[in-house]
Amino acid sequence: MRGFLFLSLLAAAPLALAQEQPERLDSVVVKASRAGENTPVPFTSVSKEQLRSSNPINSLPMALALQPGVVVSNEGGTGIGYSKMTVRGSKGSQINVTLNGITLNDAESQEVFWVNIPALTSVISSVQVQRGLGTTANGAGAFGASINMSTGGVQQNPSATISTSVGSFATGVLTANASTGVLPGGLYLDFAWSVNTTDGYIRNAWGNTTSLYGVIGWINGSNSLKLTYLRGDQRTGITWTGIPYSYLQTDRTYNPEGIYTDDSGNTCYYGNHTDNYAQQHLQLNYTRQIAGALTWSTTLNWTDGYGFNERYKTGKKLKAYGFPSDFAQASSKGDVIFRKTMANDLLVLSSSLSYGRGPLRTTGGIYVSYYRGDHYGELLWSKVLGKAYDYASLNAPDPGNNWYFNQGRKWDANAYARAEYTWRWLTLYADFQYRLVTLDMNGIDDEDDLPMGSAYRWIFFNPHAGASARFGSHRIYASAALGGREPGRSDIKEIIESNNLEGGNRQIKPERMLDIEAGYGFDGKWLDAGANIYLMEYRDMLLETGELSASGYAIKDNVPRSYRRGVEIFAGVKAGKYFSARGNISLSTNKILDYTQYWEEYDNPDDWNFVGQYSEHFDKVDMLLSPSLTAAAFAEVHPFAFAKNSFRTTALSAEWKYVGSQYWDNTGSADRRIPAYSWLDLSLTHEFTLGEGRLGIGAYVKNVLGSLYYADAWVYRAHFASDGSWYQEEGVFPQPPTNWLFKIFYNF
Questions:
Q1: Of 600, 597, 603, 608, the residue nearest 553 (C-alpha)
Q2: Has this prediction a pTM greater than 0.70?
Q3: CATH number, domain containing residue 538
Q4: What is the dihedral of CA 322, 324, 329, 333, to 10 degrees?
């Protein structure tokens, strides 16, 4: 801890003082974690205008679908509800996501659940997507990519926008934004509200989400004070398991979640088979321009979350829900309704000092967070016990009581510093992050009442260095970085349970990676283009190998060697006011070395007696859900740009995405592979002058060519010793055929 405090002070110390024209105070927090034009890392920036124009559905993953190496999917197919995004094949838990410099990744799972922050694109002003390890980041270190977002900057003049959209699958979006602009004395207020509804493409993919955003701020000379509030409420049907692969050709919208058979033999679906979550973020930021080139910024953040999923399950034993084994009906099977609940809080202090004068740009700071997460389950109803069951007289647990309760407590403290020095055509860059993480877990797990008591401590040092050179319109760069990442809660939980049951001391190690990047860019008057080569070399990557403990628990294991290597090529062209286009292509190879896949093995398909594990070894095999080829293109035409009336605003745009084939699991089997797919979207927009404002309309046609594809999948397999046959369950996530949205908005 002493070393951490020393590095914190060192990172926050100013390098020098100077008088210089101050930069915009509302951009200081964002710049602390963003790459600049000469920073030797691959990145793309997406403006507010691009975010608003891409699609009326305000899901951020969908808005970033055309970025290099990005693959997105949505469980319900409409963009509302659970969305998933990978970058270069790196999953969500490996992507560091920040909002105004504060991490949004859940501290335990390290995932970002985009459904919990709906309509985000309606309130953020810009996004930067860094691929690879990127620059030093607040919170969890980036391990495959980072996404840095900022909410709207200070607007000088009052404005307001109201927008409504309707479309296929009873999808509707209503959004309102308003800003006072900067009032006399420096006070300003911003507000945004959004409601999103849909029936979804597949059954039970309905969603009702709302968001509320508000800012009260004050900016005066060298001082800025801002209080930001963001709340998201989500209530959706459960679609986690997708649809069985066997239904893909006959009923692409079938979803088995919540299905049961009533006493009359009729097939029914439980009406409240739902996922519910509410999350709110409160951020207080103070920024001061100490001297012309020196700026200090500090943010206090509180994030509060509460939610549950309610599910109907058939054929469950009561002992799985807290009933003791000596209870008369503990082993009786029947239908149950239960809830699994989580409640969490995140407190963050982030403080940085930025200096920029002449050729030197530096930033240093500290970031300290404390997370508390509670998990518990409630049995709401049991068909075996019935409604009139007398629990107290038989000393049985009341279904309303928790059958499990466990907690996680996590401290994350880091110090970081970065510097760029430009001399003529050469820019040298270096940064580091020193990170200390502690995790304490206690309580009872939701399976087998096993204790989860454990404590962990990890230290990471993540350095990064590189250089770039600019010759007129040409730029070349190269960099190298080291990164480390701790295991997630689910990774640790299974190890704990295995050790508790078997008295072992199995350990799980953090993942580590070396990232080498090199690239070229050209920025001309009407053409920009470039290419980037990357080598992401992993040590001890954590994978679900299928291996079971002796007690039957699935265990993630560290794979000694794996890598992602590839090249990214991109280009853009702009022909005056009439036409613009951009595109990219990513080619990669994503391999695991010296890998063994395990499956459960049973005696025969009739008895299903567990006899051990069946395994297969691979010297080199493709990583799951990591396509070796992705490509994207965007084109926009303003056919009447020469007009002197409103026709000059008419725009026709096209978006195209191609995703190469990818595997369901880590075996490289052609039988378990998502076929390559592509989609094409078209939109037509137009704006009129109406009174003091602008009235805009837009028509958006998604998947114009009607491609019938699925974008994500999972699989479970078991082997039978008697005849060598296999049992397989799988879920795939089909995306809808041609669908549409119509949008109208008024801005003044």
A1: 600
A2: yes
A3: 2.40.170.20
A4: 40
Under 8 Å CB-to-CB from 642, ≥6 apart: which residues? 648
- How far apart CA 668 and CA 670 sit, in angstroms, is 6
Quote the tokens at residue 413.
């403290």
The tens digit of pLDDT for each residue in 630-671 reads 999 999 999 998 888 888 999 999 999 999 999 999 999 999
User: Which of the four pLDDT bands, split at 50, 70 and 90, describes residue 140?
Assistant: low
- Number of continuous H segments (helices) and E segments (strands) in the chain: 5, 36
Residue tagged 């704990």 (tokens): 496
What's CA 374's distance to the chain center, in Å?
21
Q: Which of 309, 277, 272, 129 is nearest to 211 (CA)?
A: 277
Which DSSP category does 643 fall into? -
Distance CA 330, CA 316 (A): 10
And the tokens for 98? 């920040």
pLDDT in tens, 21-37: 334 666 666 666 788 88
> Where in 660-709 does DSSP place strands (E)?
662-663, 673-674, 677-690, 693-702
Helix (H) or strand (E) holding 500: helix 489-502
* Rounded Cα–Cα distance for residues 203 and 606 (Å): 32
pLDDT tier for residue 624 given thresholds of 50, 70 and 90: very high
User: What is the residue range of 161's domain?
Assistant: 2-747
Give the pLDDT of residue 552.
Answer: 55
623 Cβ contact partners less than 8 Å away, ≥ 6 residues apart? 89, 562, 564, 590, 591, 592, 663, 666
CA–CA dist 559, 651 (Å, integer)? 50
Separation between Cα atoms, residue 731 and residue 712, nearest integer Å: 8
Task: Please report how many Cα atoms fall inside a 13 Å half-sphere around the Cα of residue 445, on the Cβ side.
Answer: 20
Domain count, the chain: 1
In Å, how far from its chain's centre is CA 662?
A: 20
Local confidence band at 136 (pLDDT 50, 70, 90 cut-offs): confident
Which residues are paired to 591 by β-bridges? 563, 622
Instruction: List 574's β-bridge partners, or say none.
Output: 580
Residue ranges with strand state E in 121-204: 124-131, 145-151, 159-167, 171-179, 187-198
Tell me the per-residue pLDDT of 684-740, one tens digit each, with 9 for 90 and over: 999 998 888 999 999 999 999 999 999 999 999 999 999 999 999 999 999 999 999
Give the bridge partners for 682, in sequence order.
Answer: 654, 701
The token pair that represents 334 in the structure block:
């029947």
Q: Are 488 and 508 in contact (CB under 8 A)?
A: no
* Residue 501, φ and ψ in degrees, nearest 5: -75, -30
228 forms beta bridges with 215, 283
**b/e burial code for range 200-235 (CB count within 10 A of at least 16 → b):** bbbbbbbbbbbbbbebebbbeeeebbbebebbbbbe
